[in-house]
């Protein structure tokens, strides 16, 4: 499904300094993939404008307008589609996630799914009470890694006695 659209807002705000601008520099057409409809991929051909920034002290002299909820800078997929694909990538990872995405009309490579997971911000780390450390060799003698795990004690449902096991 192809949707042709263009922006009509009179002004756009500079992402660097926040100053609104109405001075149009140029226009160009960009392609954004959106959530599938009836299992069919949706391609939005969007005409956007570049604006001059009027703030003399701003480093960005020219900026491109973004459409809230649809576009992000340099993104070829809509905000909603990226959120969906990121959720799939977290749940299923690369190969299985790519198969699932293809079934729902959003074909994507397994490598791109994994890049989306890697691009996520690290979760907030609170107070760590017990830290587990383990080393492993990716290639013995050449490359090693370290795993840091916050250890959370699990209260066992069965209490074992201290007696040694019977033989
Ligand atoms: Zn600016």
TrEMBL record:
Residues 12-55 form the Transposase IS204/IS1001/IS1096/IS1165 zinc-finger domain. Coiled coil: none annotated. Transmembrane segments: none annotated. This is Transposase.
